[in-house]
Design goal:
Blueprint: E1 5-8, H1 14-27, H2 39-49, E2 55-60, E3 63-72, E4 82-89, H3 98-113, E5 117-124, H4 136-143, E6 147-158, E7 161-171, H5 185-188
Helix pairs in contact: 1-2
């Protein structure tokens, strides 16, 4: 079996991206969406993201095993040096180190772009893990150096119960003044052989 490969998500990946993401929508509270997006919607999201940020997939034997991307944090110009990160792995691909591989590559690219702060918004159960949500994502992000910065209580309602949202952050670089402008992903893509 070949080694996993990380590459840029392509338009033709939309159906597999949808198939990876749909179980998180339908069977977990990890995503607060309540209806899975179509392949067309996933393509639209991907097309919008790659105009400014990386949208990466990990594949093995031509099968997608997961994806990770960054997107604007809040969306105002003063936040340009911050980005929100997102990751989803195929359910049977979790716990094999692929998430760490994806995030490390994503972070390398974002750092090259000039992004200084990474933010992760993570749903958590109130108290103990339940059948729809665990603390695994918080643990994953903490393992990669993210620190908790706040909790929004009772922020999402799914499966007949309320869930909290934890924000975690990772600082990628020094905050200097003046600050260099952000380099959009398409301008540095070739530096990462993507």
């Amino acid at each position: 079996m070949s080694e996993p490969n990380i590459r840029l998500a392509l338009p033709q990946d939309a159906r597999q991206l949808m198939e990876i993401y749909a179980p998180y929508v339908e069977k977990t509270a990890i995503s607060f969406e309540t209806a899975p997006p179509t392949a067309t919607a996933m393509l639209r999201r991907r097309d919008e993201i790659v105009q400014r940020y990386p949208y990466l997939v990990v594949e093995q034997e031509k099968e997608l095993l997961g994806f990770a991307y960054a997107h604007p944090f809040v969306g105002r110009a003063a936040y340009d040096w911050s980005a929100e990160t997102t990751i989803y792995l195929r359910m049977d691909a979790r716990g094999k180190g692929l998430g760490g591989m994806l995030y490390h590559k994503l972070e390398d690219i974002l750092k090259a772009q000039g992004i200084l702060n990474l933010n992760a918004c993570i749903a958590v159960p109130k108290g103990a893990d339940d059948e729809y949500l665990t603390h695994a994502s918080v643990d994953f992000h903490a393992h990669l150096g993210y620190k908790p910065v706040g909790t929004f209580h009772d922020s999402g309602y799914k499966f007949g119960r309320w869930y909290d949202m934890v924000w975690m952050e990772k600082i990628l670089g020094e905050h200097t003044t003046p600050v260099a402008p952000i380099r959009p992903f398409p301008t540095i893509r070739k530096d990462f052989c993507l």
